[in-house]
Each structure stands twice: as structure tokens, then as C-alpha cells.
Amino acid sequence: MSFYEITGGRPLEGRLAVQGSKNSVLPILAAAILIPGESVIHNCPHLSDVDNTLDILRLLGCQVLRDGTTVRINASHLTRWDIPDRLVREMRGSVVFLGSLLARLGAAQLCYPGGCELGPRPIDLHLSALRALGAEIAEEHGLLHCMGCRPLQGREICLSIPSVGATENAMLAACGCQGKTVITGAAREPEIVDLQDFLRKTGVHITGAGTSRICIQGGVSQDRVEHTVIGDRMAGATYLCAAAAAGGSIELTGLEPEHLACVLAVLEEAGCRITQEKGQITLHSSGQLHGVRPVRTAPYPGFPTDAQAVLMAALAGGEGSTMFVENIFDSRYHHVDELRRMGARIQTDGRVAVVTGAGRLHGADVHGTDLRGAAALVVAALGAKGVSRVSGLAHLERGYDSFGDTLSSLGARIQTL
Ligand code: EPZ
Q: How far is residue 330's CA from residue 100's CA, in Å, rounded to a whole number?
């Protein structure tokens, strides 16, 4: 099993164009099957989750070509509407294909995506939204058989939780509905706005993304769409926390500071100096962070759950204490035990974790078991004294494009062995 060998304590310096957003490109790729023609997607990152999604598109009958960070998808002739278990289990985000397959073909079949390292990942809100639009969904033997009452009928859908995935699924299915669909209680993440921007280019009338009320008047009228995906705010947060932990000065381009407002505010409170302008964030850090006010994860625009682990890793090597409350997922502290191996002093109780800065962590052999948890171990290793070996790289490859090379380009001493 390959691993990163990281020699910590070296400051990070330099400029980085942040990768395209994983959590934006995945639903946009699923949306490509709405179009009986070609979608050209720019700024598509090289990630295993993207590779899996492109495999699904090919399997459904799409022609898929990739040239660097540009992907061309021709969905003129879809040949099936079922997605094999192995691809769904590989990536739970494939559940958004339910909405786009129902909209385009009136049918979809895939297995339950199941839970993951973050705890149970129910899809009840997805299913109730699709049923509200007229889909008949049979759940048997772990499979979801979805048939649309052709055509699906637009109506008001109310989400009891601002679920990102359920909002996206409802938006995609609504594109195949007659009449108007209104989603209330919608997620407000920037990735939802990016999906709206893509769908508008297909001819669908859609407004309200970024607010909790999204209106969609279905009907794709274009047979060619071109779109550039927004920057990945979670990759951005990761590199910022890495520089905060290791010290140094980095400049990120290709993402919007407002998409990370909560994270930037906490890093400033922890002692970093941050400047921002359109499409650019600069962070300076001494490498010695101090504790901050409680960090409570929340739906956007609150503090993002996907930045919890990497921030915790940066603060663990500083001074002072910080309380975290993980309000989104049931089990998102798997990185804590591994950080403790590096000398971190962290107490957890259910959703609460209290980090007491250890002054400086020390290198250790650690193993990542989920995407952001593995990234947190890399952040900690960059700020630690001595050498660390971080395994679990397959998790990192799901969400970070060329993670090791990118960190090396910023001056980190990191190699894959
Ligand atoms: C998306 O997951 C992201 N993934 C996650 O990023 C992110 O952490 C999450 O949104 C929250 O922001 C992608 O976009 C591919 P949710 P998603 O539905 O859509 C509960 C990463 O690291 N819920 O907003 O699955 C759910 O259990 C990943 O890049 C239901 O109860 O998240 C959770 O507690 C991790 N029923 C909460 O809602 C449902 O039907 C928020 O989940 C759906 C969700």
C-alpha cells in the first residue's frame, strides 16, 4: 500500500490555481444526460470520483472524451437506465443520476448507495422529492427501481433538511417535469448555484439557487452546452489549513473568497493574516496558531463540515483550546485517533471534540479512512516536527487532484512511496 512520506516543519510558499470543484462537477456530469447532444465541461479535475462518473456516463451510452481538464460528453443516444452496483457503491454521489435519468428516460435503477465512513447516509429526502414529482420508486433487495409517470409533474417540494444531494436530485428531475417545480428548504451551497448556471444553459428556466427556494420550469431546449466548473472551495480550505499549520505564505486563485468566508474568518482568528479579492485568497502564517471560538459545522453559509477535519489538524499543533461541534454527520471524527498518534490532545464526546493545542505535533505513521480525514493527517504532518507516513491515499485521490505534487510545488517535502 503506497503512502506519503512527509518531512514537516517546512513553510509553504507560492501561488496555486485551485482545482475545479468535485462537489460541483459530479452533479453537472450527471446533468449532461439531460441533453440530447453535447456537453463541454471545463475545469474538470482529475479525481477518481470523476473517473467513476465518466464510467457511468459511458455505460449509459454516452460518448465521453477527455482532454486535460476539458470533458466532452455526447448523450444523444442513451442505451440503458440502470447503474451497476459496483459503480454506485464506489461513489455514493452517483445517487444524483436518479433525477437526471428520470427526467430524460422516465426510468432509473441503482442500488442503495449505502453508508460510508461518515456514518449512515440516508436518501429518504431524495426519494420523497422524486415521488412528489410523480416517480414510482420500488425498493427491493437493496435496489431502487424508479419509473416516472411520464411525464413527471412539477409541484412544490419541501426539504426538511437542506440536503445538498436531495436538492440536486430534485433540480435534475424537475428538468423533466411538466409545469413548475418549487423546492423549499433547499441547500444553498455554491455548488447548487453552479448546477443552476449549467441547467440554465440547457434552456431550463431556473431561479433561486443560493437561496432556500428554487423554482424550475422544466424543458431542455439546447443540444450543445459549454460550462466551466467553479473552483473547489474544500480543496482551497485544505491548502489554506496546510499553510496555516506549516507556516508560510500562499496565494490561491480560481475560487471565490465568499465561498469560504467562515473558514477564512476562523483562520484569521487563529492568527493568520488573510487578504482577499475577486477570485484570489492570500494567507500568511507564522505556523503557530492559537485557539478560536467554538466551531460549529452547519449548512452553507455556515462553517462547512468538509473543512472541520483539516482545521482541527491545523489547530492541534498550535496553542490554546478550541471546541468543535460536528452537526452535519454522525461520525466524522475518525481522524482524531490518528492525530493523537502525532501528539494531538483531543477529547471527543459524541458530536463534540475539544482540541487543546500541543504546541507542536511530532511525526508518526498514520492512516486516513475518509477523504477529508486523510487530508487532515497530511495537514498535521506538514506542521509537525519530524517525518510522518500517511497511508490511505485512495481516499485522497477521490477529491484532490495531484495532491502530493501540488504540495511539493508549494515547498513541502512530500514523496509517494
Ligand atoms: C454533499 O454530500 C457533499 N458531497 C459532502 O461532501 C458534504 O459533506 C455534504 O454535501 C454536506 O455539505 C457531494 O456533494 C458529492 P447532504 P450529501 O445530503 O449531499 C442527511 C466531501 O467530503 N440526509 O447535504 O450526501 C445526511 O445524513 C463530501 O466532499 C438525510 O437525512 O450531504 C447528513 O446528515 C463528504 N436524508 C445531512 O442530511 C437524505 O435523504 C446533510 O447531508 C439526505 C441527507
A: 29
Nearest of 160, 155, 130, 132 to residue 145 by alpha carbon? 130
Active site residues: 116
- Confirm if 148 and 134 have CB atoms less than 8 A apart: yes
Maximum alpha-carbon separation in the chain: 62
Do 172 and 31 form a contact (C-beta atoms < 8 A)?
yes
Burial class (CB in 10 A: 0-12, 13-18, 19+), 388: buried
Of all protein residues, the one whose alpha carbon is nearest to atom 26 of ligand 1 is 121
Order of strands, sheet of 321-325, starting from the edge strand that comes earlier in the sequence: 295-296, 321-325, 352-356, 345-349
Dump pLDDT digits (tens) for 169-181.
999 999 999 999 9
Among 189, 308, 296, CA closest to 241: 308
For 61-100, how does the pLDDT look when each residue is reduced to its tens digit (9 = 90+)?
999 999 999 999 999 999 999 999 999 988 888 999 999 9
Which pTM value belongs to this model? 0.98
Ligand 1 within 6 A of CB of 216: no
Fill in the amino acid letter for 324.
Answer: F
Tens of pLDDT, residues 306-329: 999 999 999 999 999 999 999 999
CA distance linking residue 98 with residue 197, whole number of Å:
20
Q: Whose CA is nearest to atom 44 of ligand 1?
A: 163
